């Protein structure tokens, strides 16, 4: 009887150890089958780390929840960075849970986030790395258009860098352009200077695209492009207060149409929708008929007409641009079993890294195919579970979603580990007596 009980206890410990090894090394195991690439990005959606407000609301469990979440998010960043060795690490916005926090609390959260994202160690010493960090401003970092204040902008840019930025990366024998948009101020913004700055950057990108249309563009935006209901979990909804945005699931149809027509990105990587989403956008360069722009002598017939509009004209002719979009931008669709070749821009909304959504990290790879210059420009894309694989203009793109586990399952495992550490030695001791 005692011998059998010992065997059961040992078997239990072996299974428990195996479960722990799999959970804590899942990213390394997943990475074993991950293909090689020329450029790799690790993407982390909406961590939304909390602080004093949660402790005030839930004094008994608030501190425990924050401690657990910090360590779990740290595990997500650290393990996936070590496993996939990216060139770039991008947090897709909503770093914090609320932009309305005091200066002191803000800097406490910055220190926590830098540790969480594996930029500093527990003693706040910078860690050496072979990758570059980029951060995208979300609505919980600087607010929607109606909420954005100078101190939101200043403290964000002082600590995380410009709201809009771009860089070039050599891939194979050519180059890719990567650009981060300040999506929070693209639509109606109370402080006009921030919206003008956001659009000035967009117009700069448009000019660069005209000069070098051969360079593929990868676009980052916290808020996804407009989609019809049913394309993703989120629904198309924008709310205004005094004419300025106080809430939006997607960018407005007019702004989305402008970005698709005038920037023609190969991929758009976005955040905001915690559930994640994949969609394909198809764009025609001309409408079936010219759309007059009010009482002016201008009209919308082609992409070039739309791209020549100023910001004031984009605001003035919203209805006309939306009609142009209805004629030229096909409703965003998902992917079927055989894939889709009728696309101009693919969009991946990165699932939230929060434990409630499975502790997700996105891995985005770009690889130049052999003889890319001679390949046809045909585009093709399909999904395999949580993988999006695409081919365009001699390059292969792949996005993989890595889920490290729901926070409830991890909490249960921690409790089981703790109880086992206390109970199993006592059981073994009793079996010897």
From TrEMBL:
Its main location: membrane. GO terms for biological process: GPI anchor biosynthetic process. One of its GO terms (molecular function) is hydrolase activity. Keywords: Membrane, Transmembrane, Transmembrane helix. It holds the Pfam family Metallophos. The chain crosses the membrane at residues 9-27, 408-431. One of its GO terms (cellular component) is membrane. The keyword Kinase does not apply. It is found in: Membrane. It comes from the Eukaryota. It is a multi-pass membrane protein. The keyword Membrane applies. Residues 70-275 form the Calcineurin-like phosphoesterase domain. This is Calcineurin-like phosphoesterase domain-containing protein. It comes from Coemansia spiralis.
């Amino acid at each position: 009887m005692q011998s059998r009980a010992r065997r059961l206890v040992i078997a239990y410990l072996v299974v428990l150890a195996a479960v722990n090894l799999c959970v804590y090394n899942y990213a390394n195991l997943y990475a074993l089958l991950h293909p090689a690439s020329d450029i790799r990005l690790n993407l982390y959606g909406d961590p939304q780390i909390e602080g004093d407000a949660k402790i005030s609301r839930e004094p008994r469990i608030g501190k425990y929840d924050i401690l657990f979440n910090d360590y779990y998010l740290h595990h997500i960043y650290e393990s996936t960075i070590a496993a996939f060795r990216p060139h770039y690490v991008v947090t897709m916005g909503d770093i914090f849970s609320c932009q309305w926090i005091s200066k002191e609390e803000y800097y406490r959260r910055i220190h926590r986030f830098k540790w969480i994202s594996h930029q500093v160690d527990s003693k706040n010493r910078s860690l050496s790395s072979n990758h570059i960090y980029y951060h995208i401003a979300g609505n919980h970092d600087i607010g929607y258009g109606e909420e954005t204040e100078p101190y939101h902008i200043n403290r964000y840019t002082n600590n995380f860098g410009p709201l809009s930025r771009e860089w070039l990366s050599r891939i194979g024998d050519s180059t890719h352009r990567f650009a981060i948009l300040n999506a929070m101020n693209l639509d109606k913004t109370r402080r006009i200077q921030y919206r003008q700055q956001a659009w000035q950057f967009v117009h700069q990108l448009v000019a660069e695209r005209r000069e070098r249309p051969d360079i593929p563009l990868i676009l980052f935006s916290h808020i996804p492009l407009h989609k019809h209901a049913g394309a993703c979990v989120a629904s198309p909804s924008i709310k205004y207060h005094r004419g300025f945005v106080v809430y939006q699931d997607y960018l407005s149809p007019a702004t989305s149409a402008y970005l698709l027509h005038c920037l023609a990105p190969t991929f758009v990587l976005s955040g905001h929708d915690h559930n994640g989403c994949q969609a394909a956008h198809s764009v025609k360069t001309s409408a079936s008929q010219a759309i007059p722009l009010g009482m002016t002598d201008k009209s919308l017939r082609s992409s070039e007409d739309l791209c020549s509009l100023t910001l004031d004209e984009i605001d003035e002719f919203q209805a006309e641009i939306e009609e142009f979009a209805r004629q030229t931008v096909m409703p965003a669709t998902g992917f079927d079993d055989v894939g889709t070749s009728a696309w101009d821009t693919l969009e991946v909304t990165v699932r939230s890294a929060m434990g409630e959504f499975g502790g997700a990290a996105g891995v985005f790879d770009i690889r130049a195919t052999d003889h890319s210059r001679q390949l046809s420009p045909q585009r093709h894309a399909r999904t395999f579970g949580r993988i999006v694989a695409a081919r365009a203009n001699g390059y292969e793109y792949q996005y993989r979603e890595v889920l490290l586990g729901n926070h409830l399952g991890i909490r249960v495992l921690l409790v089981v580990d703790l109880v086992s550490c206390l109970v199993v030695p006592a059981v073994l001791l009793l079996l010897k007596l």
